[in-house]
Specification:
Blueprint (H helix, E strand, L loop, with lengths): L1 H18 L3 H17 L6
Helix pairs in contact: 1-2
Length: 45
């Protein structure tokens, strides 16, 4: 279940990143995306 949540969070963040209109929003989304990617165990990458 935890893997599913991570994958969905990544999908959502990537989609929002493509739709972001301003740099502040993009920077926030990039930071959140990096944090979420760091949470995924190496074995599931």
């Amino acid at each position: 279940m935890e893997d599913f949540t991570h994958r969905e969070n990544l999908k959502i963040l990537r989609r929002q990143l493509t739709l972001a209109k301003d740099d502040a929003r993009r920077q926030l989304l990039l930071r959140l995306l990096a944090e979420e990617e760091a949470r995924i165990p190496v074995a599931t990458r």
